[in-house]
Automatic annotation (TrEMBL):
Gene Ontology molecular function, alphabetical: heme binding; iron ion binding; steroid 17-alpha-monooxygenase activity; steroid 21-monooxygenase activity; steroid binding
InterPro entries: Cyt_P450, Cyt_P450_E_grp-I, Cyt_P450_sf
Keyword Kinase found: no
Signal peptide region: 1-21
Biological-process GO terms, alphabetical: hormone biosynthetic process; progesterone metabolic process; steroid biosynthetic process
Sorted UniProt keywords: Endoplasmic reticulum, Heme, Iron, Lipid-binding, Membrane, Metal-binding, Microsome, Monooxygenase, Oxidoreductase, Signal, Steroid-binding, Steroidogenesis
EC annotation from Swiss-Prot or TrEMBL: 1.14.14.16
Cofactor: heme b
Sequence similarity: Belongs to the cytochrome P450 family.
Principal subcellular localization: endoplasmic reticulum
EC class (word): oxidoreductase
Protein name as catalogued: Steroid 21-hydroxylase
Length: 498
């Protein structure tokens, strides 16, 4: 009761401050207009318009959505613990496209694969922007990451340089790095020799070593202090950034003036992240690898010449730093999460394990699988892709922003509207998948027979995570390659209680 009372008092205080601020703004506007047109009464409708915009947002009039509270909007919906599941349940009531309000920010949620394709594939240039976010700017050093940066010439130049750096790591060298780490992971699994273990840390180390080898030319063992510090820091940032106490700062600027322990922790972890990665980059500059074929060496070479042709965009050390952050977060946690979920499902489905094992033995005999073998291993491919459907590594894609007036599914979408693709909802659409919450790898084999493609055929394409018509599939390659090797290493079973 005490906490509720404090919350109510705090909200009333914020509301009062907001009204005072809006009144002052309206007074200033009316004073300026009075000098020009001698009509001071215009301040009243302006004030009402400002209050209406703040309390109700500016949703598309044709879009339905759950009722919103004054000032808070749909903050309670957005603060749900299992947000992708909650947004999917709202789609059952309001349709596969609906709106939510948070303060004066309007968000449009997309829950169907065809609607998502329309927005992010057919009309990608309309929705290529990223939201302007107070917390996002802090995490990304002012929007200088590829994942969170807005769609502009600077972002295009950074993306072009990063893509070129990845191209220098040819497909053969990329797969050789992955195969080496996967072989090591297989040996780690064999060394457990039937013991009951938690494999999450081993999966994280294997995935992280692929990225650090490509970026810095070095790898770490499970007990490396540097690796542990970096992983703890990055995981803490991802966890804190999803906190409602932090996301509220984007929609309610007045809250930034109040004490906020989660936000203070986020600031501390971001500073620690920059210190750790900055240390790695400085060590790399002094090492013999700086002229080698790593991603970081290619990125550093790009700093010597302006990018972007006639526009001459000059990238800085900050761009290199934040591109490295993108690679570490995006390349490590996605693969580790996929492997963890796959093991969790296989533990309870030994018949699926047997089918994978029989296929590997029949096709490969005694050698390890390679990524080039994927077309000869349909059931293993189906298993991996079924896991990506059931447990997508990004259940909610990074939000997009409409950079011009557009439409989705016949609904008008004003400029600057935030678009949130609910990939979890699209992958669990009962109109697309029979029994969408069940683990059925055979579904994906059927998709290949019917559509001629392996996965995400009626579901969501890889380009949903990228802005632009030209994309690179190296992230999917790493996920698949590590999974190929790891799933052939050992039989999995639930430990018995002693």
């Amino acid at each position: 009761m005490c906490i509720s009372a404090v919350s109510v008092v705090l909200l009333l205080f914020i509301l009062w401050m907001l009204v005072v601020q809006l009144c002052r703004q309206a007074d200033r506007q009316s004073a300026g207009d009075a000098k020009a047109s001698k009509q001071p009464e215009a301040a009243v409708p302006r004030l009402l318009h400002s209050l209406s915009k703040c309390f109700c947002g500016t949703p598309s009039p044709s879009l339905s959505g759950p009722p919103s509270l004054p000032l808070l909007g749909n903050m309670l919906d957005l603060a749900q613990e299992h947000l992708p599941i909650h947004l999917t349940s709202l789609a059952l009531r309001y349709g596969n496209i609906y709106r939510l309000n948070c303060g004066n920010t309007t968000m449009v949620i997309l829950n169907n694969s065809e609607i998502i394709r329309e927005a992010l594939v057919k009309k990608w240039s309309d929705f290529a922007g990223r939201p302007h976010s107070y917390t996002g700017d802090i995490v990304s050093s002012g929007g200088r990451t590829i994942s969170l940066g807005d769609f502009n010439e600077e972002w295009k130049a950074q993306r072009r340089v990063a893509h070129s750096a990845l191209q220098h790591c040819t497909t053969d060298s990329l797969h050789s790095v992955i195969e080496k780490q996967a072989h090591h992971l297989c040996q780690v699994l064999r060394d457990y020799n039937g013991k009951a273990v938690d494999l999450s840390e081993d999966f994280t180390v294997a995935a992280s070593n692929v990225i650090t080898t490509l970026t810095f030319g070095k790898s770490h063992d499970k007990f490396s202090v540097d690796l542990q510090k970096l992983q703890v820091c990055l995981n803490e940032i991802v966890s804190l950034w999803g906190s409602p106490w932090i996301s509220a700062l984007d929609s309610f600027p007045l809250l930034r003036k109040l004490p906020n322990p989660p936000f203070s922790r986020l600031m501390k972890e971001v500073a620690r992240r920059d210190e750790l990665i900055g240390k790695h980059i400085e060590e790399f500059k002094k090492s013999d690898c700086k002229e080698g074929g790593t991603v970081t060496s290619s990125l550093l070479q790009s700093l010597k010449s302006p990018q972007g042709g006639a526009n001459q965009i000059t990238l800085t050390d900050t761009h290199v730093h934040m591109t490295t952050v993108d690679l570490l977060i995006g390349g490590t946690e996605t693969t580790a999460a996929l492997l963890n979920w796959t093991v969790a499902f296989l533990l309870h489905r030994p018949e699926v394990q047997n089918k994978v094992y029989e296929e590997l033995c029949g096709v490969l005999d005694v050698r390890y699988p390679q990524y080039s073998d994927r077309h000869r291993l349909p059931y293993l491919c189906a298993l991996i892709n079924e896991m990506l459907r059931l447990r997508p590594v990004a259940p909610l894609a990074v939000p997009h922003r409409a950079i011009r007036n557009s439409s989705i599914a016949g609904h008008f979408i004003p400029k600057n509207t935030i678009i949130i693709p609910n990939l979890y909802g699209a992958h669990h659409d009962p109109e697309v998948w029979d029994d969408p919450y069940s683990f059925k790898p055979v579904n994906l084999i059927y998709c290949r027979t019917l559509f001629g493609r392996w996965w995400r055929v009626p579901s969501c394409p890889d380009s949903f995570w990228r802005r632009g018509p030209t994309v690179s599939g190296r992230g999917s390659s790493q996920n698949g390659d590590v999974s190929f090797h790891s799933l052939s290493a050992a039989r999995l079973s639930v430990p018995t209680c002693q």
